[in-house]
Design a protein that fits this description.
The protein is of the alpha+beta class. It contains 11 helices and 10 strands. The strands form 2 sheets. It has a 6-stranded antiparallel sheet.
């Protein structure tokens, strides 16, 4: 994501650590934080739920009930209200500052969006949509990336209707985030949920058979749905199609195997369920922006 030219020209640098530029619209506040020198143990807290998304550089995040993690461009984290962040800035410099956006949502607005989603697009098997009340760290997909980029533009432009524009984009952003969290939740808990939830049952089957050639027709039978209904329900709940989910799970497995020095690229794509090396390379690079061989080299260098 990139900051707009108008923002870069107009913002004022008043501190070298977490310099904050804030833009406020109805129900939502956007802040751009810039850090121009290395720093440790910088504390930050918001009184409402917040989405933090990295723009440039690197942070090391220390959160309650969460292992410390590197926070990198292309990643976001959702934090509940009053959650304390302790942040390190290991690579920030004057020439290459670490930049992050923080979007604060009024709780009432979040509740209304989730209520509308449950009214208009209820989940199957008596489940309900919920916005996370705990820390949720994830990689932005293409849709979320584009929404955030658009919101940066809307918040920083001078347009009389920008409250309306932003409100529509934020509704989509929230829905895509809860779909992303649902996808992550099912991936981690599919086995436990499979007996009571048809989509979780499908996800569990995919994960247990990820190295095999999985047919959508078989997934429809497992879900007890017609093909058209299955595609619709799956995408509404997880935000991506069944085929996209299978590819995502295979790429996730491949990234883990590539960190093992005993696995060659040829072994990895086969073990991950791909039957074409060129297709594997293309899908992997689309996800991680580097080829499998480059990813493997980077992992070896870090070790």
């Amino acid at each position: 994501m990139e900051l707009t030219e108008s923002f870069l020209k107009s913002r004022r640098i008043e501190t070298l650590v977490e310099n904050r530029s804030t833009f406020t619209l109805n129900h939502t506040e956007l802040s751009i934080f810039e850090t121009h020198q290395q720093a440790e143990d910088v504390y930050l807290k918001f009184s409402d739920p917040v989405l933090a998304s990295m723009l440039t550089g690197k942070k090391v995040m220390h959160l309650n009930q969460h292992m410390d993690f590197d926070f990198l461009p292309g990643e976001s984290v959702i934090l509940p209200s009053d959650e304390v962040m302790c942040i390190d800035f290991p690579v920030a410099t004057i020439k290459n500052p670490t930049k992050c956006l923080a979007m604060v949502f009024e709780q009432d607005r979040l509740d209304k969006i989730i209520h509308s989603l449950n009214e208009l697009k209820p989940k199957i098997d008596n489940q309900e949509w919920k916005f996370t009340n705990s820390n949720f760290h994830f990689t932005n997909d293409v849709a979320i990336h584009h929404i955030l980029q658009r919101l940066i533009f809307i918040f920083t432009e001078q347009h009389p209707s920008k409250d309306i524009f932003a409100d529509l984009m934020i509704q989509e952003l929230i829905i895509r985030i809860v779909q992303t969290e649902t996808r992550t939740f099912y991936s981690k808990n599919a086995h436990k949920l499979a007996s009571n939830n048809r989509i979780a049952h499908v996800v569990n089957y995919i994960r247990e058979n990820i190295r095999e050639q999985i047919q959508v027709e078989q997934l429809c039978k497992i879900a007890c749905m017609s093909e058209s209904n299955f595609y619709r329900v799956f995408k509404e709940e997880l935000g991506i199609s069944p085929i996209e989910f299978i590819i995502e799970e295979r790429i996730k497995l491949a990234s883990s195997l590539l960190k093992n020095p005993e696995f060659r690229i040829k072994d990895v794509y086969f073990e991950s369920g791909f039957n074409s090396l060129s297709y594997f390379n293309r899908m992997f690079k689309k996800k991680y922006k580097v080829s499998p061989s480059e990813y493997k080299h980077q992992a070896a260098t870090i070790d």
